[in-house]
């Protein structure tokens, strides 16, 4: 198949090169596993997976309604980044361990990488893009700037959303409690002291 | 992740109907099942979203106990005033686990169902009898510093990861479930299964059964209770060892005690033997040490985790000491 044929094929099936490679990977993994699983005898073969039926979901993100047609496997994080081009929320570990993907769902901080987009119907999602009012920064954003609460900035959107959630929850009062309550957000640059100062400033404001 | 069909159900009967087919899994908070699906360890064909079910209440019962809906978030349970007052060990246990974000997502029922973090279970490159029954246990001959020393078998030494469950084991909570054939109440000790020859069978739930709520029985002296967790980091890490204890001290004598251990067992590990040892003794270090020795009597170490036996004893002694000093 030459290049033009390949392009036509992609247009026809709507499959990108990246998705195609992913599918091939899954398929060959499935082939290798089947004999093992059959021997174990307690599971059905992997190649009978349910077909991926796209679903339509209506999300409320930063106050505006977005209707998307998605594969059921798409996480809230991937819907935000890949479908809505809101790339503020970051993908760090993609397993709920680093906190870079933290957003607010109905005002509470969650890991958007461990939440399916289809489950968000009826949830008010606030991302880092939704915190400022026009040109006016959210107090937590301003405090992070003032106290230099970051170095490379990759964890910062998650840190800020998490910090906003922390202040709302109202369970952290001492330095130790704030550190404990921010433990779900990892900063490889080690800006923790400055993040602590930023949060304390907002809390006392 | 394998493709799956997603359905949202409005009530418990609909959830139960949807559960029996297509290797369905329930999803509530999703913090564990979705993580495992991303790694192709869990491969449901159908995901049943139960978040619309009315199982969000924390109710104080007339008998002094508390009934907790299966969908109550871990953070809501931990910060509930009645839980903090009547069962501080449960509040402390929950707050010692995971991160604030995860606790805002994870539910009571989901926490009961969470699966081991044994690295060999998580890595599909290795043999694991939990993941692929009959394939072997790579942990027994592998790096097993985090693995269990109590309740193990020749087929599995995976640790039960939950903190919440350790406190619930100590309290003797009762798990209420509903299935196609009606409702059942399962005593906590019978809910999780020992690995034995079938490590892939982890709990006492049938495929069509849904946890609806957990009942915490009245236990007045649980107001004097504590959860202590020892781990490699100061926060956001699974237990090396932990202890959930409650003491009923009257006139300088322990009238009754509750003792459960985490990080050391293949299931949340209540030690009734240790409770019996404590009963009738004065609340002092010698008594606590005796209880700790009893609790770990049957411990069986592997290459890298013998330290857990001594660490668990010290954890228990310290938890009992702290609890004994609560006025």
From TrEMBL, chain B:
What keywords is this UniProt entry annotated with? Answer: FAD, Flavoprotein
Q: Which InterPro entries match?
A: CO_DH_flav_C, CO_DH_flav_C_dom_sf, Diverse_Substr_Oxidored, FAD-bd_PCMH, FAD-bd_PCMH-like_sf, FAD-bd_PCMH_sub1, FAD-bd_PCMH_sub2, Mopterin_DH_FAD-bd
Among PROSITE patterns, the record links this protein to: FAD_PCMH
- GO MF, any single term: FAD binding
Extract the coiled-coil ranges from the record.
Answer: none
Sequence ranges assigned to domain FAD-binding PCMH-type in this UniProt record:
1-221
Any idea what this protein is called?
Answer: Xanthine dehydrogenase family protein subunit M
